[in-house]
Amino acid sequence: MKAIEYLQYGEAAVLQLNEVTKPSPKPNEVLIRNHASTVTAADIMMRNGKPLIGRLYLGLNKPSRTILGFEFAGEVVEVGTEVTLFKPGDKVFGGTTTLGCYAEYVCVSEHDVITTMPSNISYQEAAPVSGSAITVLNFLKGLANIQANQKVLINGASGALGTYAVQIAKHYGAVVTGVCSTGNVEMVKALGADQVIDYTREDFTKNGVQYDIIFDTVGKRTFGECKNSLSQDGIYLSSVIDFSLLMHMIWTSIFGKKSQIFLNRDASSERTFGLFSGN
Ligand SMILES: NC(=O)c1ccc[n+]([C@@H]2O[C@H](COP(=O)([O-])OP(=O)(O)OC[C@H]3O[C@@H](n4cnc5c(N)ncnc54)[C@H](OP(=O)(O)O)[C@@H]3O)[C@@H](O)[C@H]2O)c1
Description:
By secondary structure, the protein is an alpha/beta fold. It is built from eight helices and 14 strands. The strands form three sheets. A seven-stranded mixed β-sheet has the order 10-9-8-11-12-13-14. It has a five-stranded antiparallel β-sheet with strand order 6-3-4-5-7. Helix 4 crosses helix 5. The protein is globular and about 55 Å long. Bound molecules: NADP nicotinamide-adenine-dinucleotide phosphate (NAP).
């Protein structure tokens, strides 16, 4: 089958269209003929192998998995012997922590994030739904246990994670402030944000307002910058890990009152893990 591979870290030129072996489904897997995938900020960071700390699980000198792509939308063409939930011909979409979706075919466990497609959406519309939405759900509900009426600020509210974060926080009844650039203010309002701050005109860390949860979906504001904007038991969430965040987490776990959390999909073990410090 054809696949886009990267055999070394670097700019987009490291991507190559190659002929590779078509995967075969294990007993609990379905084989999907993939019609659409996504290129996300996370894919680009993995392709670059930056931040370097990510290479601890991507591969130290070169990528251990050579085909990127978390998300898929396509048609089941074969099922493993133990699969009960899907059959050949089903149109499915979802995301897989084992990557490999930049390819004509991908194998996914039936217990991974996969479900049948609604009949009124296209493959291109289905592919981008699962990854960002589930990541955000893990942060806001799984880690921060978001509650109705909490004040929640979403930094990067116009991005892939941010647009879901605004909608999921509203779904749980939070009072939501979105932060984005001028051109996206109306879009973020339309997603349901109660208030929108244009970061080119106002710095939310300096306006004296405090939030129960600050979710920096784009890694643009540090815990230190946000600390005074957190309520007493406030939680800072970041989807972007770097060395200084890791050091801060160790520090606040020993001395801090407010919390900071980073979470990532663990591509090597098919699990989601979180680091939680503070309080
Ligand atoms: N931990 C995980 O499991 C996980 C999963 C997925 C992604 N990620 C990471 O999360 C990050 C975001 O991913 P994404 O897919 O949401 O990215 P994206 O779709 O590319 O969105 C980036 C957003 O950043 C906003 N932005 C740029 N500068 C900003 C600033 N100074 N203040 C506030 N917002 C700013 C932009 O908004 P404007 O256009 O309005 O400026 C844009 O909407 C990436 O680093 C990615 O690697 C982590």
